[in-house]
Amino acid sequence: MTAESTVASPGQQRTAQDAVTAVDPRGRAAGRRAAFGRGARRPRPGSRATLWLVDGGAALSAAVLVLPAPHRFSPVIVVLVLGVIAMNRRATLYDTFLVPGVLDELPAVCGRIAVGWAAVVAVSPLGSLPPAVPATAVTVHCLAACAGREAVHGRRRRALRRRPRPALVVGPVAVARLVSAALLRQPGCGVRPVGLLADDPDVLGDADDEAGLPVLTTAQDARRAVIQNGVETVLVVGAATRTEKAAVLRGLAAYGCVLWELDADPPSYGPGGRRQGAGQLAGFSRRLLGPGGGRRRGSVGKRVLDVVLSGVLLVLAGPVLLVCAAVLRVMDGPGVVFRQERIGKDGRPFTMLKLRTHRPASAHEAATRWSVANEQDMSPFCHFLRRTSLDELLQLWNVFRGDMSLVGPRPERPYFVAKFSQAHPGYPARHRMRTGITGLAQIHGLRGDTSIEDRCRYDNAYIDNWSLWQDVCILLRTVAQFVRPTGS
């Protein structure tokens, strides 16, 4: 168990004045405009033009490769290119701050391509072609667009890992410290806090927070931080902060910073409630400051996916389970199935099934011992089962029965649910949805002996932004990470 403090290890102490006048980490000169206001905007990170070229080139590729010669360079193709780009722009698929994966964008990109082709076929001479020709063109167009966009996003993701975007965290100092520490623990998120803009300076104490980040208290300090550290992102913690710091935030936005609101407080949900968001950042629900919307939950579709996939996987995995059970029976004796009480949706207990890889000394140990992944007296075969997660395959029966889902927060024992609920106020909110075999936290490496606080945050972000496609993406990413060094 690693229910550690949310504050990172102390870094080298600096004064706020020193920090905000440091040399720009990306080597830019510090001679930019030193005041907020009109005319002070900087270019947003990234370039929309590259994605426009990708989408336009994908449409032209489909026309050249698939359509007959008379139709390849007709004005209809220009209309198609402009129409698809317009639809993608309206769907914010050219937002250069977000760096999605190909699976995240696939439904939106392919759906708009299909709509564009359907429209031009319906009102142009392309309608005289055999149906197989436009269908092939749509397929080629989708493949080219997704491949090109993934190449662009992949390059930007690699650049962000090497050089994360500097960010200011705005909000109550205690919560701002929690957020900044969590972001520093997740360097792959692409954002690196360089300072905290606190709205309650009376409780600051030291000039720096425990992670060595400067605590800024004035608009002038914030302005210098933006100029000298190349700040492009402002993370606003809580709606109250948005109101109290409205003037400063307007100045930061006028200077070209992208403003995001983060849900860092423990969630307060009613029965079946969920927060509306636009994604997550290191497990915090995140939305652009501005109009937004949420998605409806489709519990029927999720359950259908669970039943179909778990049933198919049980049939396919049956021989593997029988071989593993036979080996365990020969090596360790009877009792190859491990049954344990776990807490599921709405706090209801259920019996979870696994292949037995360890025999606890007593029922108390089984209920209260955190992890046995590195137990010395486990046989090499049991270590293999845990390392490859083959011991988890029996949980497919729990999914088929309806105790669990394929994707969702991992279920825990009653003892630890009570313990973590006291230590982490957002932990009980994980039980708004069926628990799962894998989840958003697990594909971000939060398995086994990792931070409970981080797991809790990712789990709630998953529920807040749930969609059936997100489940499919998590399942595909889980398959890609199937062989892992530790169990959960």
Automatic annotation (TrEMBL):
InterPro entries linked: Bact_transf (IPR003362), EPS_sugar_tfrase (IPR017475)
Gene Ontology CC annotation, any one: membrane
Subcellular location field: Membrane
This protein's UniProt keywords: Membrane, Transferase, Transmembrane, Transmembrane helix
Record's keyword annotation contains Transmembrane helix: yes
Keyword Transferase: yes
Pfam families: Bac_transf
Chief subcellular location: membrane
Positions of the UniProt region annotated as Disordered: 1-27
Membrane topology reported for the UniProt record: Multi-pass membrane protein
Limits of the Bacterial sugar transferase domain: 302-483
GO MF term set: phosphotransferase activity, for other substituted phosphate groups
PANTHER family tied to this protein: COLANIC BIOSYNTHESIS UDP-GLUCOSE LIPID CARRIER TRANSFERASE (PTHR30576), UNDECAPRENYL-PHOSPHATE N-ACETYLGALACTOSAMINYL 1-PHOSPHATE TRANSFERASE-RELATED (PTHR30576:SF0)
NCBIfam families, A to Z: EPS_sugtrans (TIGR03025)
Protein name: Transferase
Species name: Streptomyces caeruleatus
Lineage of origin: Bacteria, Bacillati, Actinomycetota, Actinomycetes, Kitasatosporales
